[in-house]
């Protein structure tokens, strides 16, 4: 009683960790010009707000300079904690730009044109309270010197082509690291010691193998769109909290996947679509979503899901995509319903 769906299934992306943005303040007309001096003892001086930015009186620790066509860094009053500079044409972050910025907690610099050689060696390093740094969609070719306090670092969509062991060293609190869509061919030992990392996205690079020393506590590991053809024995065995593994659009073959690689409990979603697999790999009965479309799978092997079936022992698989392979719905054995009794979407 399989429901063979024709609807293409969207891969289930866990909700991205979005910044909890404070509501965007409406520009208030009361700033400076003539309205007294805008100051009273103990209140922040609003006149230190650069003309090209907004510093809402209701949120005196934030400065909004996003999408203003800026080509250089504005001056930054020292009270500012949340700085929005995204979607400009800023190409350089010199040390001098950050002299007053030591209270920054969030720095949003995504969608600019920042080049690695135009980032002062100490410019970011000195921001010792920085928690979130967004540098995605820039022109970086290497990882700048960064403060160790970061929790959320986004460097995706740059042209980073090499990493060093020092790049993320000592970032004990780093939880989210986005490095996707760069030109990295080897992670080296750059990930070593990221004890708090839960989300690692290194998809869309030039990796040919699984990076060594992957952080032990990752929940989400995204490796799709690289050139990985094999995985090491016991590759997923060492992770205690891994739930989402995405390796679509690589060059995986059956030969490159040791038996039981993906038979690890705890996994919720496994995406191996757009590879060169000829068999369905053995997966754990706890897996819920398995994407295998666009491989070269020739048989529906029920044993990949259940080695044994009884009243309490069956696959928890809910989504199974097998379209774009060399099998058809008739290849599903009738006893499958015993094993795959929770599958509500099987696409062949
Ligand atoms: C730093 O603060 C001083 C004093 O408020 C100010 O004169 C200067 O322009 C600021 N520099 C930058 C780069 O923000
Ligand atoms: C910077 O990156 C953008 C998009 O990634 C690219 O279009 C542009 O040519 C790059 N600019 C330079 C000067 O490298
Ligand atoms: C990590 O966070 C803790 C608690 O907020 C803090 O004490 C520690 O200094 C941080 N570590 C780094 C490397 O900044
Ligand atoms: C998967 O692993 C479990 C426990 O480690 C084992 O009992 C089971 O036989 C394996 N599944 C298959 C299909 O080999
Ligand atoms: C299901 O069967 C497998 C293989 O015999 C076994 O390893 C596993 O512990 C069983 N699980 C449950 C929930 O009984």
TrEMBL record:
InterPro entries: Leu-rich_rpt, Leu-rich_rpt_typical-subtyp, LRR_dom_sf, LRRNT, SLRP. The keyword Zinc-finger does not apply. It comes from the Eukaryota. Residues 48-82 form the LRRNT domain. Residues 34-50 have a biased composition (Basic and acidic residues). GO terms for cellular component: extracellular space. Its main location: secreted. Coiled coil: none annotated. Residues 1-51 are annotated as: Disordered. Gene3D superfamilies: Ribonuclease Inhibitor. SMART domains: LRR_BAC, LRR_TYP, LRRNT. It is found in: Secreted, Extracellular space, Extracellular matrix. Signal peptide: none annotated. Keywords: Disulfide bond, Extracellular matrix, Glycoprotein, Leucine-rich repeat, Proteoglycan, Repeat, Secreted, Signal. Binds to type I and type II collagen. Belongs to the small leucine-rich proteoglycan (SLRP) family. SLRP class II subfamily. Affects the rate of fibrils formation. May have a primary role in collagen fibrillogenesis. This is Fibromodulin.
